[in-house]
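Treating backbone geometry as a discrete language has practical consequences that deserve illustration. In the encoding step, the backbone of a single protein was reduced to a row of integers, each denoting a local shape. The amino acid sequence and the backbone structure tokens for this protein are reproduced below.
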Amino acid sequence: MPDNVDLTEIRAAAERVVAKFPFPNYFDPAEKGHVSVAATLTRFVQPGAAILDFGAGPLDKTAVFAELGYRCTAMDDLADEWHVRGDSREAILRFAEHEDIEYIVVDGTGVPPTGEFDVVMLHDVLEHLHDSPRDLLIELLSRVRDGGLLFVTVPNHLNLRKRIAAVRGHSIHPQFDTYYWYPGTWRGHVREYTADDCSRLAVALGLEVLEIAGVHHMLEKVPARLRKAYLLFSRVFPSTRDTWSMVARKPVGWTPRPALTDDELRSVTGLTSWGELGH
């Protein structure tokens, strides 16, 4: 694993993506975590490694890795509200072809990825799932080589901005109007994560945690007048940053555990029946 990360090269790759991206002003890599995501993974795997990016969306993060020389495959259903408006979906797929990224649309017609990957990554995906991520992650990890990595980033349920909002009597969930007026099935955040959640996720999947770290991926949500103080405070208390980043290794001989016995479920949950979840 390289000791030094070339941030200059990563920033240059991110800027090249911005220049070619089909949706102007969609993201600022300095604020949305693109540089930190790339910097994290390049400490664990070298360019040339095969990456499967699940929930890749418009490829803003995937394309940075492609620019750095990684072999990238992307998966997404491309069914967000904005994906299906106009020619957005077609523009994303054209961009994938331009960046030499294989794009598998998860709509029943796409061909599942073949071969083994060095890394499977999910950025800002798990918090949108209405069901347990267990089956999805087991399926994705089955396509990762022994010794390969799971790399996830998820919003920090206890970040500083939300703690302050709660004290002021405001919701820490997405704005109610956004939820209320969202067209069709809600595709916003369902369950955000803590550091302990990330650790428990890795243990449940039978993975070795290499790193869990607080990072900044939503700086644009912090008012400019408060950003300096926010960054200073979160430097001292990294657990208050807006996002958790976890890298975990798939061990040799990994065998997934898709379910628990009834006795194990009772032991883990403390419930005598699943009906108690509603109380």
About this structure: Strands lie at 50-54, 71-76, 102-105, 117-123, 144-155, 208-215, 243-249. The mean pLDDT is 88. The first helix runs from residue 7 to 20. The chain has ten helices and seven strands.
